[in-house]
Specification:
68 residues, mainly alpha, 2 helices, elongated
């Protein structure tokens, strides 16, 4: 049995079981995690991004957290 789970704008039938997040979902999820760390007192956070396409969403979430 083959199961394909896809979400978001890109659907890739050739990568069975692959899931995708919408950019807004990624931004909110990352923002929630970083925001929680900051509210707990974290002052230095290092995040690694393995996909260049996600940089804008992660950067946008980071900027929003820094401004609040």
């Amino acid at each position: 049995m083959r199961v394909q789970i896809t979400a978001g704008e890109r659907r890739r039938a050739d990568f069975t079981g692959t899931t995708n997040l919408d950019g807004g979902t990624l931004r909110r999820s990352f923002g929630d995690v970083i925001g929680d760390l900051v509210s707990d007192g974290a002052t230095k956070i290092l995040a690694f991004n393995g996909h260049y396409e996600n940089e804008y969403f992660l950067r946008e979430a980071s900027i929003y957290i820094l401004k609040t």
